[in-house]
Structures are given as structure tokens and as C-alpha cells.
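As agreed, record copied across for absentees:
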Amino acid sequence: MTLVMGIVNVTPDSFSDGGRWASADAAIEQGLRLARQGADIIDVGGESTRPGAAPVDRAEEHARVVPVVEALTAEGLTVSIDTMWASTAQAAVAAGASLVNDVSGGLADPVMASTVADAGCDFVAMHWRAPSALMDARDSYVDVVAEVRDELAARLDALTAAGIDAQRIILDPGLGFSKVGESNWPLLANIGAWAGDARVLIGASRKRFLGAAIAVPGLAHPEPEGRDHATTAVTTLCADRGVWGVRVHDAQAAADAIAVVSAWQNAFDTEE
């Protein structure tokens, strides 16, 4: 069954929640809330990766995320660390995180791959072309599915060469990263064409391309929280396709959608 990864942004400049969980206490409570609502994994991040976001000092990132990881794992929750930086990944794994979710796929920090290999944990390798300040300008594809496939394959080769077990690598197409609008949809519609047999994480939650899809002509695109129903539609389709996981802000809606898909599929199998 598709897993729900609930998002906890311990940042003052998150695109979706505007810093609502920026303090450790608020982030811990949000992580516990997401787990109660059905999240299987709590994804803790201390640096915004929204378009145009400013970098965060490593010491500040550590201070934001490590207490949250420690508290949530102490409650028995499965926690992932959302970071591009090896030192942060190492500190979070030492604090109890069991998965590293790197939006750069190991490209931002040359020692990330060896750090993860030494830790022996799972690793989400996302498709990435440029840091936040530059990524929108890199939305240039002739064939987005083929190019993402080839660029992720190159990352797989590099990561396994660095010692990460291929079975521990989860692929993410990087929706919204160097993909502003229409570039996202072919990646969702053709998951098998770029992912092969790898586990897949889809992070569509509240992103701009969903706002564009549901926009009413003549009106402004919906703000991030107004994209939750569209996010749930994507979750439903991903669950039907057997995707390994979805990264979401609304864990309850995602868990409900996945449960309905499972019930539907079970009934269909019985009829067959």
C-alpha cells in the first residue's frame, strides 16, 4: 500500500504554511498530529527549497531539525530528514532518522552519497537541475520524461558507485523543481517510463502546477492550501498506480484516499 509522508517544515519561509511550524515545539506537535492522521513517515526539513529561497547556514539547519527528529523518534515515529547537506543528514540519522530525503539527489553536497552509504539508510534521490534561485530558468526540455529518466539513471549510477545499495534508493521526479507548469504532468502520467522498477516518491502537494490546473479563468490561482483537493486527486491516482509513497501536507486526506483505493482494488480482485 502507498505510504504517506507527512511534511514538517521547521522554517520561517515555507511556501505552504508561512512558518507555522518554525519552532521546535510547534514542529514536534505537528509531526505527532500528522502521525495521528495517518502519516507513516514524518519528513522534517529545516531549509526551504521553494523557488527563490535563500540558503540556510548548516548550524542553523541542525538547530532547527535535530531536536524535532529526536523528539519524534522518541515517540516511536519513523522520521526522514529533508536536507541537501551531508552534515545535517548525519546529525539527523544520529538523532534517529531512518531515511534521507535529498531534493538534489546528492548533487548539492559531494559527500552526501558516501555519508548515506556509511549510515546504511534509505535515500530519496530527487531529479534536480539547479538550486532554488535558479531552478525555474532550467525548465527547458525536449522530452521531459526521457530527460528525467536519463538524469535520474545517472544519479543512480553515481550513488551506487559511492556505496549506496540500489535497493535503498527511492526516486522522485522533482515536481516543481525546474518544472514550472506543464512539464510536471507527463512525469505523473508516465511514471514507469522514468522510474523503471525503483520505488517512487511523489511530492505534488500544494504545488504551483496544481494551482494552474484548477484555476478559474479570470481569477488568481488558488493559494497553497486551496490546492489540497487537487493534491488528494494526485494521491488517489498514485495509489492506484502502486506508487511507494506520497509526500503531503494533509495526511488525513491522503490516508483516506489510499484506503479507498485499497478497498476498491480489493473488491475488484474479488470480482475477478
Q: What stands out?
A: Strands lie at 3-9, 41-45, 79-82, 99-102, 122-126, 169-172, 199-202, 245-248. Residues 251-271 form the longest helix (21 residues).
